[in-house]
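Thread title: Can someone regenerate the structure for this chain?

I was given the following input by a collaborator and told the matching structure tokens would be attached. They weren't. Posting the sequence so someone can regenerate them.
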Amino acid sequence: MLVSLALLASTSALAAPSGKAPTVPVQTLKDVTRILSSDAYAGRAPTSPEEAKTIAYIVARMKAAGLKPGNKGSWTQDVPMAEVSANPTPLTFTVDGKPPLALAYKTDMVIGTSRLVPNVDIKNSEVVFVGYGITAPELGWNDYAGLDVKGKTVVILINDPDWETKTLDGPFGGRAMTYYGRWTYKYEEAARQGAAAAIIVHDTEPAAYGFGVVVSSWAKPRLGLDAKDNHMSDSAAIGWMTLDGARRVFAQAGQDFDLLRTAAKAKGFAPVPLGSTMSMSMTNGIKRQMSKNVVGILPGKVRPNEYVLYSAHWDHLGRCLPVKGDGICNGAVDNASGTAGLIAMAEMQAKAGPAARSQIFLAVTAEESGLLGSDYYAKNPVYPLGRTVGGVNMDGLNVVGPVRDVKVVGPGLSELDGYVTRWAKAGGRTISLDTDPEKGYYFRSDHFSLAKLGVPMLYAESGEDLVNGGTAAGRAAAEDYTTNRYHKPQDEYRADWNWGGAVQDLTMYYGIGRELADGKAWPNWVATSQYRAIRDKSRAGK
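Best answer:
Regenerated them for you:
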């Protein structure tokens, strides 16, 4: 859920913290970002030839910063992965007495599988519309109520039922997306229900990106974590269809998609069998390979078996669709800059000397493939999650300039809000709410892998109230990056960037991390958070 600024502010102590942070090493930010985003690193794709070069550089910088190897004497943690290259047929929908309807790959739909099998074959699977595909017992909401979907194909809406609400009021947080709205959850729940295939209907506004983004991410070999069971508990096929494709499928079955979409917003909606069947097949190439997380540590001097965590993902998209002849997605802001922030933070904390608790610096792989590196670490932690106090994730630094505010992504979830409020105030900044809550950014970066297993993680970033130009200039800069550089070859290093905003943020992150590392507090989730019970259980087991 999201909360008001007043409630967010109430979680902080009245007094601003004292103490001065070491100077942020701006040259480190420039050097690490420039080098990692150079063409020599070819976009830092996991398992690519350039991964080894990337890992070696990060390790060298961590070592030079004064860190120690963080994984039982090793600088790295192996992350077993499997790449699936799917070659699907069209999705063919059949209704008795009517001509078959075929949805074409890349044009009308994308489809794939997380199962590590050479072939997928689905024949005459009954099609069911399950609304938003949500099962939320705490809200009395079950879009699968009264129907067994084992072996069937479920069609699902993206986002939450109340996403069109203009406020933050509603069973699912109103305008703010909850995890129930994320596509990852939709597939997870469909698998738990036993669906053979799960197809999400794409709609640009509630998805927060166009269908072209979906195609570019899905219509290529896709990385996932390897698994001993070959992910056989997942649905055999998962994918997306266009809004137009969905309307045609429903019309073929004599149903009005838009009417059913409206009905699905109401509590008590019942799944609707369409009276059609879906058939498709795909052949899969499977390539098992290893990637790596990088782990460094500054051992604590008083309670070394308690840990504060800093994270950033080192990977990007590698070679991608060329724009004006440039086919390398360098990922300078996303996330060479965040990796640079991780190294700079290591230098600052090492310069300040050992804290009471140990501090972990984690550079994870394959964030762009679905938070895979952080997910693997969270499920296979080098340091127990029950002894991990909390931490800060850095995914893209501000290279536009100093700002007057701090944007907390996912505010009102944990007691870390009090820390960020205090340290923002110490830096002369105010707190602003997420300007795009419907996009679900809280669930789209590596902190979430740890959060959903109970570890309070802060995800904050510079706001948009630029010292030079105000909110209009800040919003324009953010939109320019999203439109013209995000996940494109144009996300390249520039020598004329203004690092003043990054310095503000890193100074704040340093203060938050140092307060956690030198203190005895164990910040928890708020009482209403779904992660509170998970945290309490892990702390009890430690």
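The two ends are 27 Å apart (CA to CA).
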